């Protein structure tokens, strides 16, 4: 694999474990370069989210990878096939080298914990950060993701925030480990047009400042054309 290629998906097929072995994603292939943004388009139920979850080794039952490879250029130029990665090795990848932002932060964030606590836990899981530095790092992430009054937001619970603020908190958690690749799975679906544009601009700026690759998944081609020069349908 070319050293400039971060992710190389080859003939990936995802299906169920049932006797009928229904194929949901059929023979998909694409490449993502380092620092590049790629869009994945498709209607609801077409397998977009399953493709994203397969890259993180998080396919829920009854789905599984039937065939194909997902090659990832991990830190240290280690080429890994994510389809065959042992679970113990995923701790070095999830959050640290590949992050994900889900569609609905209300179902992804814990409603009983403050946003600051959840960001600090993401930071703690991703690196050897001294406990006394976690709060400062949390505030820096909130500032980087464009949240005003970061101290107040860090003390707030998810239900106390607007939809746009919750999505920015999710993005802050997803980039806490400074991943090489960020997957954004329908991150603007529940937002109005002005907030959609703001989130797209934020993701674009984060990718530029961090030299981070982005896979942006959406059913809306208009949004994809705004952020991704290359789109897989």
Primary descriptors:
single chain, 233 residues, alpha/beta, 4-stranded antiparallel sheet, globular
Structure explained in plain terms:
- This protein is an alpha/beta fold.
- The protein has a single domain (5-232), classed as P-loop containing nucleotide triphosphate hydrolases (Rossmann fold), CATH 3.40.50.300.
- It has nine helices and nine strands.
- The model has no long low-confidence stretch (mean pLDDT 94).
CATH fold assignment: Rossmann fold
Shape: globular
Query: What is the overall pLDDT average?
Result: 94
- Measured between the Cα atoms of the first and last residue, the distance is 23 Å
Helix content: 25-40%
Total separate domains: 1
Strand content: 25-35%
- Name the strands of the widest sheet in spatial order: 6-7-8-3-9
- Pattern of helices and strands: EEEHEEHEHHHHHEHEHE
Reading off the top of the CATH hierarchy, the class is best stated as Alpha Beta
Structural class by SSE content: alpha/beta
Tally of alpha and pi helices: 9
Using the CA coordinates, give the radius of gyration: 17 Å
Which homologous superfamily in CATH is the superfamily?
P-loop containing nucleotide triphosphate hydrolases
CATH architecture: 3-Layer(aba) Sandwich
Characterize the biggest β-sheet: 5 strands, parallel
Uncertain ranges: none
What is the strand tally?
Answer: 9
Nutshell version of this structure?
By secondary structure, this protein is of the alpha/beta class. It has helices spanning 48-55, 87-90, 105-108, 115-126, 131-144, 150-155, 163-174, 193-210, 221-227; strands spanning 5-16, 23-33, 37-41, 63-74, 78-81, 98-101, 181-185, 213-218, 230-232.
